[in-house]
Amino acid sequence: MKPTDFLPLTRRPSRYLGNEINACHKDWNEAGLRVALVFPDLYEIGMSHLGLHILYHIINEIPWALADRAYCPDVDLEKLLRSEKVPLWGLESRRPLSDFDILAITLPYELCYTNILTILDLAGIPIRAEKRNNPIWPIILGGGSCAVNPEPIADFFDAVLVGDGEEALPEIAGLVKNWRKTGGDKNEILTGLSRVDGVYVPGFYRPRYEKDGSFAALEPRRPEAGLIKRRTVSDLEKAPFPSRPLVPYTQIVHDRMGIEIARGCTHGCRFCQAGITYRPVRERSPQKVFSLLEQALAASGWEELSLLSLSTGDYGCLLPLLITLMDRYTPENVAVSLPSLRVGTLNPEIMKQIQRVRKTGFTLAPEAGSERLRRVINKGITEHDLIDTATQAYKLGWSNIKLYFMTGLPTETVADVLEIARLARKVLASGGKRGRKVTVSAGTFVPKPHTPFQWERQLNVRESGDRLELLRSNLKGRDLHYRWHNPFQSFLEGVFSRGDRRLTGILCRAWRMGARLDAWNDHLRPDLYRKAALEEDIELEKYIKAIDTKAPLPWGHILTGVSNKYLLDEREKSRKEIYTPDCRHGECQACGVCDFRNIRPVVHEKEKVRASSHTQSSSHQIIQSPNHPVTYHLTFSKLGEARFLGHLELVHALHRAARRAHIPVAYSRGFHPKPRFSFGQPIPLGTESLAEQFAITLTGYMKPGLLKNLLGEAMPRGIIIRSAEPVGPKTSLKIPELVRYLISVPGVTASQMKCSVEKLNSTAEWPVSRKRKGKQITTDLKQVVESLQLIAEKDVEDGRITPWSWPEDAKYDELPFFDLTLRSIARFNLKPAEVIGSIMGLSGEMIKMLRILKLGFSIPKSP
Ligand code: SF4
């Protein structure tokens, strides 16, 4: 089977198409180096990860290099690939992952580790690096947030990049390309990689343990094996950013245009790993952010943008940037979201700007309920700040405030947990009137490597469950909502974040027993990890115990730049509740990261942002009579792989295509303005069509030919605009009376098909039993089928079906076809696949494999 053959059989197949808007598709044979960027979780998570988009852009900008992508397949596709023995492929090239030169695997969080095994195994690549000595295998390279302690997964990787990838990845790519060209052995490339700053080659080190089982040291096996210093991009202003970002069809978790306005946060929260490992603060200038957004939004058509950083509220020029963005994009109904806001950074002016277009969610993270505990963790916010911000937010129209907390922070008591509930009620009360809500989200504190709390103990699963339950029982009440993070997931996160190489065996065993997609609650199997730990004779709980501050650490060879002394001092200060100020605006706190030549804080303050005249919307140039809305009816075809776009995906794709084409679409009024599109009856997923229709209302008159051409050029592959006709102010589309389809049935003969036609035509009734909304209903198929006949090769040659333009990729070798006309009766709503499945007695799988083309429809004549 080819990769595309799986598409009809999988859930949400648009995830595996690889032809998203702005996908590169470089020539495989021309490329001197092929890199597969792999995200070890489902597509909807991986496509939301900005880092992968940046690296995709960087590699594809290199003339001799090709970047493709792969994500962890969902369990249904994994099962199919295994049963058909088809290796996992790169989405765009559709080449097996084992054909690539480098698999660059992102390490975003610990709960994706078993997915790495799924991906390597499905690709047919040996899982352990020691089994890949033959240079035919791709170099397996890791990188990302978890690279600061790669030990639990070190045995799977040839090399791990620690720190920023923008400069290091092209260096690595160049080395691997030259190595491939000269035909050297594996040892040669590993030695070369170990000399690249920030690259760790795990095979060059050997762990040693004490007799009591504690970690003793990571000993070098080779002279090249030294300490690994994190790579840091000194100037974010010059760092590449995708000007033509990939735009997915399916809805992803962060379905918007994200731009990194700053990297690093020096606020100094003592539990926060990113606050240490991404130091110092490096801001992009607001002018640069604006110009990057202009390009990226024009090329993508996103309807929402998000300003990303570890603490967006701390960005030096947030207000001028927001004002410029709002002035520029409010008329185009582009929403702006700021996902990570810190209490104390939000002033009423900023909040007023955010709510100008759409009130996206309002989330605050006090982390701890009591003032005392917030001092311990150096959160630096008071209850007064929090209540003040919440009151402002409610006043400005937000109705639901989300609050994030952690339980199990060092020194936490039961009283601190109860303080969370009290604080949540106080926030709710600050809303003043009914209808206001507070949603509390709580998780368990995980002591992370390289933080001042890296030596602390973590609550075990039972303790964590007890505290979360205590919180739940105290959060009862109208308009108070509660969500908590699964304690076992936090436990696993704690085990693997501070783990060593002995955990590799547990991972492999749990995965072989079926552990998959552990970050998803509905897939997590704690029993498998417990069993694997027993079989490996390893006590998982020992990894969440307190660590002596003098003990060697499994991640001790990775240097983030922050000194151990600083971490210990911060730990000490936490016990004394002493505040450490943010170095961004004031005194250096001597954490050790900056050399103040190349690496130093970069903060932009009091800078203006100009929106130059050419950046203004070009919509007005193509409209002839603005402010007099006109509705157009358009017809289009949906062919080839576009048939795997579901109805909602298609709707989104059309909205974004209209934005990319600068079509001046009219919007509805009200709180959430929506573009004025309306659609005919949705066709089932997997069905091609020559006869789809939708209506669009523009803010004025536009030549229909121009509308057809502009929109047509911006459409996803396989969507072809056939006609556009102005119809006045009305938007409604007529409901078809009859719909005609051609249907081929793989694996059956013409005589079997003929037999089915005769059987149906000779019977008076054909009851079909189906489940709809949980109820069993029976429909008489004869009432729905207007006609059914067989078209064999001869009929095509005779020209019997020429009135319909034949889709390019529908081949004659798929003949014979059923020629089926259905009456469009809403209460029956029988799909063509159900009709053919019933009359031929097909299995569910065979029904999915039917190739169906909607040829056309007829509209009832007006009385
Ligand atoms: S070295 Fe000083 S200025 Fe640089 S990040 Fe650390 S505390 Fe801040």
Characterise the protein shown here.
The chain is an alpha/beta fold. The chain is 29% helix and 19% strand. Strands 20, 21, 22, 23, 24, 27, 28 and 29 form an 8-stranded mixed sheet that branches. Strands 2-1-3-4-5-6 form a 6-stranded mixed sheet. Strands 15-16-17-18 form a 4-stranded parallel sheet. The radius of gyration is 30 Å and the shape is globular. Bound molecules: iron/sulfur cluster. The site of iron/sulfur cluster has 12 residues, from loops.
- Please state the CA-atom Rg, rounded to the nearest Å: 30 Å
Estimated helix fraction:
25-40%
Q: Structural class of the helix and strand makeup?
A: alpha/beta
List unreliable stretches of 5+ residues.
none
Q: What portion of residues belong to β-strands?
A: 15-25%
Task: Report the bound ligands by name, code or SMILES.
Answer: iron/sulfur cluster
Strand count, sense and barrel status of the largest sheet are: 8 strands, mixed
Mean pLDDT across all amino acids? 91
Enumerate how many helices there are, as a single number: 25
Tell me the number of strands. 29
Give the N-terminus to C-terminus distance in angstroms: 52 Å
Mass-distribution shape: globular
List the helices and strands and how they pair.
Blueprint: E1 33-39, H1 43-46, H2 50-61, E2 65-71, H3 75-84, E3 102-106, H4 113-122, E4 139-143, E5 159-161, H5 168-182, H6 186-194, E6 199-200, E7 205-209, E8 215-220, E9 228-229, E10 257-260, E11 262-263, H7 274-277, E12 282-283, H8 286-300, E13 304-308, H9 318-329, E14 335-337, H10 348-354, E15 362-367, H11 371-376, H12 383-395, E16 400-407, H13 414-430, E17 437-444, H14 461-474, E18 480-484, H15 487-497, H16 503-513, H17 526-536, E19 558-559, H18 564-576, E20 630-638, H19 647-660, E21 677-679, E22 687-698, H20 704-714, E23 719-728, E24 738-744, H21 750-761, E25 767-772, E26 775-780, H22 781-784, E27 785-791, H23 793-797, E28 817-823, H24 832-840, H25 844-848, E29 851-858
Parallel strand pairs: 1-2, 1-3, 3-4, 4-5, 9-19, 10-13, 13-14, 15-16, 16-17, 17-18, 22-29
Antiparallel strand pairs: 5-6, 7-8, 11-12, 20-22, 20-23, 21-22, 24-28, 24-29, 25-26, 27-28
Helix pairs in contact: 4-16, 5-6, 8-9, 8-19, 9-10, 12-13, 13-14, 14-15, 16-17
Bound molecules: iron/sulfur cluster (SF4).
